[in-house]
Amino acid sequence: MYFVTAQEMYDTDQFAIERIGVEGKLLMENAGRAVADQIELFVSDQKRLAVLIGKGNNGGDGFVIARTLLQRGYDVEVIVCASPSEIKGDAAYHRDVFRNSGFTFTRYEDVENLGHSLKEKDVLIDALLGIGVKGAIRSPYNQLISFVNQFEGEVISVDLPSGLPADEGVKVDQAVQADRTVVIQYPKVSAFLEHTAAYYGRWEVVDIGLPSTVIQSQQSQKRVWAEQDVSNTLPIRDAFSHKGKHGKGLVIGGAVAMPGSIAMTSRAALRAGAGLLTVATVQETITALASTVVEATYTTLPSEGGYISDIGSVDFSYDAIAIGMGMGRHSEAERMIQVALEKTQGALLIDADGLYALKGNLSSLKARQNPTILTPHPGEMATLLDVSIPELLHQPFAYSKAFAEEFQVYVVLKGAFTIITTPQGHQWVTVTGNPGMAKGGSGDVLAGILLAMVMQSQTVEEALCNGTWIHGYTADLLVQHQHSTYDLLASDLIEGLAQTYRALLR
C-alpha cells in the first residue's frame, strides 16, 4: 500500500483527469460513495448523523456522503460552513446534485447555533478541510475545529482530520481529534508521524479507482509493508536445505557489564533462521553466554576495562556481520568501527554503541561496496544528523532519505512507525508492534532478526522490511495471547518468533 504527500495526491488526481479522462466529478462521486459504504459498516442506521461541510473538495466529498447515506435511510443533517461563492468546481456540482435530489442543508451561523443543532446527534462527519492545510487555521474553521473536539459523540473524518497537514515538516496549528478516519485511496504521510498519527484515531483506506501509475513512477515512492508483502517475499526452505544455505553470520560486541545485549542479538539471529552464528566478544562475556546461546561458536577478543579493545584478529569473510551491541562508548570504539567498515566483505549491520562510534567515520560509508545497514532509534539518528530529536521526528522520512542517499546506506529508523530507507531513496514503513516493546533489549533483538534476514535469499530491502514487520508482529501476538504491554520483555520476543513463523508459513 502506497502512502503519499499532498502533492503526490494532487498529481495522481490530475493524471486521472487529464491523461486518463476520468472527470473530477466522477472521482468525487466515487470517493463519497466509498466513504459512505465504509461508514455504513460501523454506524447503524438508527444513529443520528451530522455532516459538516467546508468549501473545498473535502466538502464536495461530504455532499456525496450525505446524499448517499440519506438515500439509504440514514437520519443526516447537513451543515455547510462556507459561503455560496466559496464552493466552486466539482464541489459546487455535487452541492447542486444534493439539492436537486430533494435534500436540504443549513448554513453555519455561529458555534452557539451549531451546538444547538448537534445536541441530539450521535455521529459527526468531518468534511471541513482537506489535504491542502498549511499555517494557521483561519475563521470560521478554527472555531469549528474547537467545537468538533468538544463533541461528545463519535467523530469521523473524511480523508484526514480537518486542520491536520498531510505532509511532514508542517506545524500543526489546530486539528480535529477524530475517533475514526476514512482515508481516500492512499494514506497521507502524517498518518505515520508520532506527533500527528493520534489525530486520525482508527483509520481505514477506501479505494476509489485512482491509477497507481503515477505513484509507481515516483523515485521517492513510499509504501506500507504489510502481511501480504511478507507472505510474498519470505523465502520458503526446500527439503534439501542445509545450514550453509541459510547464512554464516558474526556478531561483534558485548562487555563484562553488558553481556545481555549481545546474548539477545545472538539468540534472536539463531531463532530467526541464521544457519551458523559466531559471537566475537571478551572472554568474560563468553563465559556468561555459553550456557544460554549454546548453538553459537565463539571468538575471544582482547579487552581493556571489560570492553573489547581490538578487532583486528576477526575473520571478516562472513555473509553478514552485526556490530555495536554492548560494545561501549570508549576511545577504541571509533577505530574498531573503521576496521569493520574497511574489512567486512558481506553485509554490515551497525547498531547501538556502534552508531555513536560511527559518527567520526561517516566518510568511510561511501567506500563500501557491500550493503551497510544502520539501525538507529531517534536519539542515535539525531546524533548522526546533528539535529535535535524533535527536529528529526518532525520530518523523519526526509531526514532518513537524505542520509541514506548521501552515504549510500540502508537506514532502519526504529519507532512506533519504523521507517526503512534504501540508498536509492525508496522508503517503507512497518506498523506492527505495541508499547510493550518500549523496553531495553528490543533493539538488540531486532538487530539479530535483521542479521538473519539479510542472509536469506531475498533482497536487502525485503529482508529489512520482513525483519522489522516480524519483530513487531511477534510483540502483537504475544500481547494478544500471553502477555501485557507491561510485562512483555525483549527476551519474550525471541521465543515468540516461533509463533510468528508458524502463522506465516502455515
Automatic annotation (TrEMBL):
Keywords: ATP-binding, Isomerase, Lyase, Metal-binding, Multifunctional enzyme, NAD, NADP, Nucleotide-binding, Potassium. Its EC number is 4.2.1.136, 5.1.99.6. AMP binds at residues 414-418, 443. Binds 1 potassium ion per subunit. (6S)-NADPHX binds at residues 57-61, 130-136, 141, 159, 326, 377, 444. One of its GO terms (molecular function) is ATP binding. Residues 9-216 form the YjeF N-terminal domain. Residues 226-504 form the YjeF C-terminal domain. Its cofactor is Mg(2+); K(+). The keyword NADP applies. PANTHER family: ATP-DEPENDENT (S)-NAD(P)H-HYDRATE DEHYDRATASE (PTHR12592:SF0), ATP-DEPENDENT (S)-NAD(P)H-HYDRATE DEHYDRATASE FAMILY MEMBER (PTHR12592). Homotetramer. This is Bifunctional NAD(P)H-hydrate repair enzyme. It comes from Pontibacillus yanchengensis Y32.
